[in-house]
């Protein structure tokens, strides 16, 4: 008899997005002439930077010629991309990395999900509530999350993010082994200052914890004082792994490219107390289970660091952040409490009149024909909020705000 990994049976179906689709489709069927606008899009919509298109086109031509054809590349990525990452994303912020610390991948979701391969399933994990679901579900799949209880998973410590703490988790007063932090945050759109991030690094160093830092949205930071990388904080190389992605930065959600930093200084213990390099383990893991991101894709990613590429990326980010500004101004006028959207493409909207997330979702859908994402779908502390994204078209964003103003 072949047996399954029964941890998978503990996972519930992805209720949130299927329920949204169900309600939106039902509304559209009953109201075929209404134009529904989605402010819930979780994907980018602007095309790739022209610099990437050109670089990828050239790379395809190279593949067409025996003299320049490339087969398997290095598992951890081509030097040209790794060096561009170090030179452009880290050195200007005072962070020195060696090429061996950068692992190019097919995106941050896979790496966030796979990193658990090199860490014991006995570790406890800490997540914010609300949270990006991948952090929890990937731990459920390997058994690290424990068993489901009325208060969530038995081995997961939930750190509530509410209006009282300005949607930023309190430093835990107990030991947690692995901490997932995502800043700029999805879904709440908030960021951490250097001082706030330093408290987490200090906690991790004092507790021998590891921070799994998801910086997928760093390119959206507008305030020059906000850290883009956790390694801007002294000591972070001893306690943090950082995940980055070209998805939200440069429209690579369909192309697939990201990278993960595993510092050489970072270690974790065996049961007998011996310290082992996580860089070594991750390298071994990737060389066995991953065969590299395509050459064409990596040339496309490298191109965002050219002067033209940088300008094009900046323009796209400004487009989205302009949407965010439009929405924030609209809510200010309407007197609806809105958070985020200043250094992130997400706005965390307080439901008015004490409505639940789903009640407000239904109200916006039926009165203004606008689709949002109920905050409660990201965790219990998201109740009473909806998430809006800035990834839509400017015209749609403007029209959505006009409709909201006219329905009140
Ligand atoms: C979109 C997103 C990512 C990036 O995922 P990719 O696999 O690189 O496309 C990572 N983390 C969060 C929180 C995200 O929202």
- What form results from the Cα inertia axes? globular
What is the end-to-end distance? 61 Å
Estimate the helix proportion, in percent.
25-40%
Which whole number gives the mean pLDDT? Answer: 97
Tally of DSSP helical segments? 13
Poorly predicted sequence stretches spanning 5 or more consecutive residues: none
Largest sheet: 7 strands, mixed
Ligand inventory? pyridoxal-5'-phosphate
- Listing every helix as H and every strand as E from the N terminus to the C terminus, the arrangement reads HHEHHEHEHEEEEHEEHEEEHHHEEHEEEH
Assembly level: single chain
Beta-strand content? 15-25%
Estimated structural class? alpha/beta
Query: According to CATH, what is the class of the largest domain?
Result: Alpha Beta
Q: Trace the largest sheet across and list its strands.
A: 2-10-9-8-7-3-6
Q: Based on DSSP secondary structure assignment, what is the total number of beta strands?
A: 17
């Amino acid at each position: 008899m072949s047996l399954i990994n029964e941890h998978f049976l503990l996972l519930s179906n992805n209720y949130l997005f299927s329920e949204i689709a169900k309600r939106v489709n039902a509304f559209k069927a009953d109201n075929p002439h209404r134009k529904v606008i989605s402010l819930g899009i979780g994907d980018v919509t602007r095309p790739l930077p022209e610099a990437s298109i050109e670089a990828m086109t050239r790379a395809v031509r190279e593949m067409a010629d025996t003299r320049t054809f490339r087969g398997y590349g290095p598992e951890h990525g081509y030097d040209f991309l790794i060096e561009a990452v170090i030179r452009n994303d880290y050195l200007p912020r005072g962070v020195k990395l060696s090429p061996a610390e950068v692992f190019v991948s097919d995106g941050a979701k896979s790496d966030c999900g796979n990193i658990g391969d090199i860490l014991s399933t006995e570790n406890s994990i800490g997540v914010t509530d609300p949270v990006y679901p991948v952090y929890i579900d990937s731990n459920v799949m390997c058994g690290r999350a424990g068993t489901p209880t009325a208060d969530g998973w038995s081995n997961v410590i939930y750190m509530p993010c509410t209006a009282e703490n300005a949607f930023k988790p309190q430093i835990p007063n107990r030991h947690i082994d692995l901490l997932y932090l995502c800043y700029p945050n999805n879904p709440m759109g908030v960021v951490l200052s250097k001082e706030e991030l330093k408290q987490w690094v200090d906690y991790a160093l004092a507790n021998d914890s590891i921070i799994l830092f998801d910086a997928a949205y760093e390119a959206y930071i507008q305030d020059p004082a906000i850290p883009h990388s956790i390694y801007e904080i002294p000591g972070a190389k001893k306690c943090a792994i950082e995940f980055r992605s070209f998805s939200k930065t440069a429209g690579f959600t369909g192309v697939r490219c990201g990278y993960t930093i595993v510092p050489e200084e970072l270690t974790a213990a065996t049961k007998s107390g011996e310290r082992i390099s996580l860089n070594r383990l991750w390298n071994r893991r990737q060389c066995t289970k991953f065969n590299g991101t395509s050459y064409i894709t990596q040339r496309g990613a490298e191109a965002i660091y050219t002067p033209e590429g940088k300008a094009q990326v900046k323009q796209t980010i400004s487009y989205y952040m302009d949407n965010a500004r439009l929405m924030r101004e609209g809510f200010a006028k309407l007197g609806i409490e809105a958070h985020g959207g200043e250094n992130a493409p997400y706005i965390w909207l307080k439901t008015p009149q004490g409505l639940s997330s789903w009640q407000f979702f239904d109200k916006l859908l039926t009165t203004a024909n606008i689709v949002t994402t109920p905050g409660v779908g990201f965790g219990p502390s998201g109740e009473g909020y909806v998430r809006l994204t800035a990834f839509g078209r400017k015209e749609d964003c403007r029209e959505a705000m006009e409709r909201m103003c006219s329905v009140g």
